[in-house]
Model the fold of this input.
Amino acid sequence: MLLCCSVYSYPVPEGKSGQTVVETLQRQIELLGAVKAGHFCVDCDIFQSILQSSINAQPKTVYILHNSEQPASCFAITDTGLCLTADTLFDGLMNKLKNYYQQRKNARMEAKGQRYELGDFILKVGSVSLAGSFKGIIVEVEYCPCVVAVDCWGLMKELLQSVMGSVAEAPPPVLKNKQDELYSPSITMAQYLDIFNNFRKLAAAAPLGR
Done:
């Protein structure tokens, strides 16, 4: 299927629960005429290299992501931004490389929620969790008949703003840098990873702010 995607994190107002905000966004989408079309899930695990000999070497990081929209695929993104798309057998390969790469414990992030269809659009609203603990809200819109984001950004923006308001004033940072490129699922995964890493940073900084 040909499509372009924009993925955003949605702020939870102070005093409101994440579930309440998710339900409000879902009602907003349903008021537009969208119909429920199953659920979605995107997950991300972190693997870090085990330093063998070089004292000054920095560990390398590989992020392994899966998307329910591409159930037969596995996406591996390095800390330099390189993305490898492979089949799910790649998960087994990472396990066999345990002498070189070790999975970080309690670091799995998941975005899960409701999937909607509205004409040529697919909308998704869900919660993001880190090791099972709620961290935020994610909203995704897909426009199916297009493969270059710059050609359909105006349409996606109009729909997103009717749901999210000014949060969708500009394209997500990852998409902004790739608007003229032929769209691929790896760009969607890079958007999710950017949001996941931002949530990780906030979670790591939270204890310091108390």
Q: What stands out?
A: The longest strand covers residues 35-49.
